[in-house]
Amino acid sequence: MTAAEVFTADVVVLTGDRQVLLIERDWPPFKGYWALPGGHIDPGESARTAAARELLEETGVEVDPADLGRVGRFDAPGRDPRGRYVTAVFVAVLPAVVAPTAGSDASAAAWWPLAELPMLAFDHAEILAAALKTGVQP
User: Fold this and answer.
1) Using CA atoms, how far apart are residues 13 and 127, in angstroms rounded to an integer?
2) How far apart are CA 8 and CA 10, in angstroms?
3) Can you say whether the dihedral through the CA atoms of 33, 112, 21, 69 is positive or negative?
4) What backbone phi and psi angles, to 5 degrees, belong to 51?
5) N or C: which end of the chain has fewer CB within 10 A?
6) Rounded to an integer, what distance in angstroms lies between the CA atom of residue 131 and that of residue 70?
7) Does residue 138 contact residue 53 with C-beta atoms inside 8 Å?
């Protein structure tokens, strides 16, 4: 690890009727774009725990960290214009839509049909595609 690396965790939340939970970013970069819930991993916190915490903080949707499946690590240079960000990505499938509430760092939170997605921030379209390839059945 170099001093320039920042570690984050993102979570792809899907429903059985093929919807994904997204937040509308309320700050740059990509302010106003839709993104997967996620954020910085706190000191002493695991990536899985951070993903569940960020999901709750940004959308009001609670999942047990133990119920999050691992998608992978995304670390391509340039994936974030702020610098060298490395993210661990997890996936959860909910049995039904839970009403989200925009929280910290989000101006909105909403379910989107997988067939009608907006333009996503960062490399989140790639991350979503990878999550769907894990065999998780939304």
Assistant:
1) 12
2) 7
3) negative
4) -60, -45
5) N
6) 9
7) no
pTM (two decimals): 0.93
Q: Specify the CATH number for 5-132; select among 3.40.50.150, 1.10.1240.10, 3.10.310.40, 3.90.79.10.
A: 3.90.79.10
What is the per-residue pLDDT for 74? 98
Residues 6+ apart with CB under 8 A from 78: none
DSSP β-bridge partners for residue 40: 8
Phi then psi dihedrals of residue 89, to 5 deg: -115, 140
Tell which residue, 77, 68, 84, has the closest CA to residue 10: 68
Question: Please, what's the b/e burial string for 52-82 (b: 16 or more CB within 10 A of its CB; e: otherwise)?
Answer: bbbbeebbebebebeebeebeebeeeebbee
State the Cα angle at 69 between 24 and 16, rounded to 5°: 65
| Mean pLDDT for back-to-back runs of 10 residues, the chain (138 residues) | 81 95 96 97 97 97 97 96 96 93 91 97 98 82
Instruction: Supply the pLDDT for residue 48.
Output: 98
Instruction: Please report the pLDDT score of residue 136 as a whole number.
Output: 76
